[in-house]
Target: HNH endonuclease
Amino acid sequence: MSGAFDPFRPPLVGAATWQAVMAAAGWVCECTGQCGKTHAKTAGRCGIAHGSAHCLAVVPADPTVSLREAVTGADLVALCAGCQTAVKRAATKAAEQATADSTDHLDLFDLTGGEAA
Ligand SMILES: [Zn+2]
Ligand SMILES: [Zn+2]
Model:
């Protein structure tokens, strides 16, 4: 994949992956409420478009998945900075809660199916 190089490309994932995810998202934040907001004003989807004012990032749909695992096949989504921060915060909070309740261990490490690269 060659062509225009986006100056806003975050260094998180490869350019080709980033562009594919962004194109699939229509260059608009894909958050549909996972950040905790309902985005009711924009039909349930965040609606912030990628551009000079907002720089969308491509992140794992499941924030508990490491990016290294994510780029090898997990779901990736385009999120604006605000949603990304909120989603991460929610995930961190959930993880902390899970740790606090860890007397009852769930299969937290059995989510990816073991596709070692
Ligand atoms: Zn957003
Ligand atoms: Zn959101």
Observations:
- Strands lie at 57-60, 76-79.
- Residues 15-100 form one domain.
- The chain has one domain: 15-100.
- Residues 81-100 form the longest helix (20 residues).
